[in-house]
Amino acid sequence: MAKRKIVEIDQSKCNGCGLCVPSCAEGAIQIIDGKAKLVADIYCDGLGACLGECPQDAITIIEREANPFDEEAAMQQVARMKATQAQDTTSAAASCPGSAHSGSSCPGSRAQSLPIAATGIPTGGHACGCETQDASAGEATSQLGNWPVQLQLVPPNAPFLQEADLLLVADCVPFALPDFHQRLLRHRPVVIGCPKLDDTNSYVEKLAAILTASNIKSLTVVHMEVPCCTGLLRIAEAARQVSGLKTPLEDVTVSIRGRIV
Length: 261
Known about the structure:
This protein has 2 domains: 2-90, Alpha-Beta Plaits, CATH 3.30.70.20; 111-254, no CATH class. Helices cover 22% and strands 22% of the residues. The protein has 5 helices and 12 strands. The strands form 5 sheets. Strands 10-9-11-12 form a 4-stranded parallel beta sheet. A two-stranded antiparallel sheet has the order 1-4. It has a two-stranded antiparallel ribbon with strand order 2-3. The longest helix has 20 residues, at 71-90.
């Protein structure tokens, strides 16, 4: 072993978003138990290509005693990772879990802002204060401006969250509310979840982290009228309490017949 430059990952800062993984050509970094970790010293060349990809500034280059970089071993590691990814892709039963739910990073969970196509001219408003558009203006287009949307997969300080008016939506709402995209989603990032089936404690922690890291301007909770779905509002209230912030909170309830009540 010799003293050399090598990557160090601050586990207290890492949120497991996985953005650093594809930037490491040697396969030295993987998501393990929800955190980015250096798999082995011999895979890291110490050049720091992953530094600019971390939104949490959790990755630094330090000098310490470490085994020398082994390029051949690193390439073998990359080959193993590619083989595993190919096997997962071609498997009929394979799913694409996010980094928070598995031991590897999923490219489909990479945070990104999406371009929004124009869809006509706003012609009026609703009781909730949101604009609608003239249906004759043309075919409706998606107003989704961010990816991913599942609360557990969204990095707390993703660029699309910064100082945003955030929607926290029960995942049944878009199926019930026919004009969800135009009525509520326009110009807002969205995160979704199910308060009945998912881990509410982890939702509170993640939402609190988002409120703290992204300086959210307002939070609108949209849930179904059924009693179990109101748990989403309690999650939002608990997250505000955990964060210590007084982020403005609005409650929107949708009936199972697709009306805002």
